[in-house]
Amino acid sequence: MDLGIDRQALVPVVQQIVSAVAQWIRKSGASPGTRLPSIRQLALDNLLSQSSVIEAFERMVAQGLLASRQGSGFVVAQPPVCLEGHWYEGAELGWGAYVDGPLGELKLGCGWLPDTWRESDDLCYAIREISRTDTAGLFNYSTPLGLPALREQLLKRLTQIKVGTCLDRILTTHGAGHAQDLLIRSLLKAGDTVVVETPGYANLYRQLERHGVTLLEVPRTVGGPDMPVLEQLLLRHRPKCLFINCLYHNPTGTSLCRAVAERLLELSRRDGFLIIEEDVYGDLQHASCTRLSALPHDDRVIYVSSFSKTLSSALRVGYVSAGTDIVAKMASLKTLTGIGTSRFAEAVVATLLANGTYRKWVQRLRKRLNAQMAATLQVLEDEEWQVFAVPAGGMFVWARPGLGDHSRLQACARRLGVLLSCGALFTPRGEHSDWLRINVAYAADQRALELFRAMGPARSTSTILKTTSM
User: Fold this and answer.
1) What residues have CB less than 8 Å from 446, skipping those under 6 apart?
2) CB distance 282 to 161 below 8 Å
3) Within a domain: residue 460?
4) SUPFAM superfamilies from the xrefs (predicted)?
5) What is the pLDDT of residues 368-419, one digit of tens each?
6) Is the dihedral of CA 164, 166, 167, 169 positive or negative?
7) Which of 101, 345, 348, 396 has the smallest number of CB atoms closer than 10 Å to its CB?
């Protein structure tokens, strides 16, 4: 068995052995009980020490991939696990995307950056600086609204993107999901009705459903919500809120156009509903765009964002900008349920914002994502995939194979070790859809390219890079 060990790589040799053997199990479809080559033979064939092979095999036993049998060496303990089930960003047990899986699957549809895209040096410097100079940041709670130094930096950032606010209207949270949960608890009760976009963010649907809130679905189009559908819903219902992702929408990658934004604000004033605008990918903006919160809105728009997608998911720092009454309710609930957010994490983010590190990092990230977006769109065009809309930026493409053969797609993805985020997972009721969310930061991986090629119908004559309806 040739493991393809690269001794110049930064990945430790033991981890390379684990990954190579796991890939062999997946691709060969080895059944439980299949015997692996002996430790001595594997070490000899790959010029490895036996101790490295032993350590790798022991790790795989701990992961449940291999089993040790007396007199038989190591055998396959289980076949590759199918993880296509309920694949959304809250279903850790369903798809294991919060940690690297033992088989080393490619998370082609996940909602954040690969570890290889992260830059740790500046983050490590900020952590050391806070540890050295801010003892309170290591041991104390943050304030109810959040660390003042961070909120001051957030005020500067919001002012730059023309979101009018002030310090007492900004509240920090444990990420955007926490912000949404606080808003739902503060503004809604069981039996209330809200409007959500579909496709959209699966965790939001489940948060709302858990609180007994009724969801009205409005289709997402290239320029935002489908306005005729929305206006018909408003004639028949009295929703309390509209939840919307304006810029680089998850999962379609589309952005709100100015005409739709202005009409949404008119309807909000007329019918009395609040608009909750999530902007977690907004820092990836590289061209002119439309945010509802940057337009005159008479406190009818609540702005939500975080640093989880761009800086670090581990820090868990998000924030909300809203009217003072809403912020006061959220701050009270935040204190009641968790006392406060992490002062240490907030101090680290405040440092990176204040010294300009975050701004420079995001500039580099935008450039890299834009290049990868163009490359991914070109591959999809070459392989005759259908693209919902050409994104102006961000990290997502909403696409499907030209033939739309779902079973063939799933089989091919399993063979290649690619985890998919299928369209059914981005609707409240899980209706079947052959659309996929593709994260372009993962799309240059050879496994992704093989998948695109394998699902490219040779006889299709469709034009791909054009706006299409769902």
Assistant:
1) none
2) yes
3) no
4) PLP-dependent transferases, Winged helix' DNA-binding domain
5) 999 999 999 999 999 999 999 999 899 999 999 987 678 888 888 888 888 8
6) negative
7) 101
The backbone torsions φ and ψ at residue 189, rounded to the nearest 5 degrees and listed phi first, read -140, 165
- Average pLDDT of the chain is 87
Chain centroid to CA 160: 25
Sequence-ordered list of residues with C-beta below 8 angstroms from that of 270, at least 6 positions apart, any chain: none
Q: Are 397 and 387 in contact (CB under 8 A)?
A: yes
Q: Please give the Cα distance from 34 to 68 (Å, whole number).
A: 12
- For the record, the structure tokens of 372 come out as 């990868």
Let me know whether 237 and 270 are in one domain.
yes
User: What CATH number corresponds to the domain at position 277?
Assistant: 3.40.640.10
The full DSSP string for 1-67 is ------TTSSS-HHHHHHHHHHHHHHHHTPPTTPBPPPHHHHHHHTT--HHHHHHHHHHHHHTTSEE
Residue 313 lies in a domain: yes
Let me know the angle formed at the C-alpha of 355 by 152 and 121, rounded to the nearest 5 degrees.
125
Residues 6+ apart with CB under 8 A from 120: none
Task: Choose one of 321, 341, 358: the last residue of a domain.
Answer: 358
Domain end marker among 336, 358, 380: 358
Look at residue 71 in the predicted model and tell me its pLDDT: 75
Summarize the confidence of residues 319-325 as an average pLDDT: 97
SS3 147: coil
Collapsing DSSP to helix, strand or coil, 371 comes out as helix
For residue 38, tell me if it sits in a domain: yes
Same domain, 136 and 191: yes
Q: Clarify whether residues 273 and 400 are in a common domain.
A: no
Same domain, 325 and 198: yes
Q: What are the Cα distances from residue 254, in Å, to 126, 214, 246, 381, 382?
A: 34, 25, 8, 18, 22
DSSP-derived secondary structure for 229-284:
HHHHHHHH---SEEEEE-SS-TTT-----HHHHHHHHHHHHHHT-EEEEE-TTGGG
pLDDT in tens, 195-235: 999 999 989 999 999 999 999 999 999 999 999 999 999 99
Co-location of 42 and 183 in the same domain: no
Looking at the structure, tell me whether residues 335 and 366 fall in a common domain.
no
444 and 407 together in one domain: yes
Which amino acid does the sequence have at 31?
S
Q: How many domains does the chain have?
A: 3
Maximum pairwise Cα distance, the chain: 78
CATH number, position 110: 3.90.1150.10
On whether residue 130 sits in a domain, the answer given is yes
Sheet holding 386-387, edge to edge: 386-387, 396-400, 436-439
Tokens of 368: 């890299």
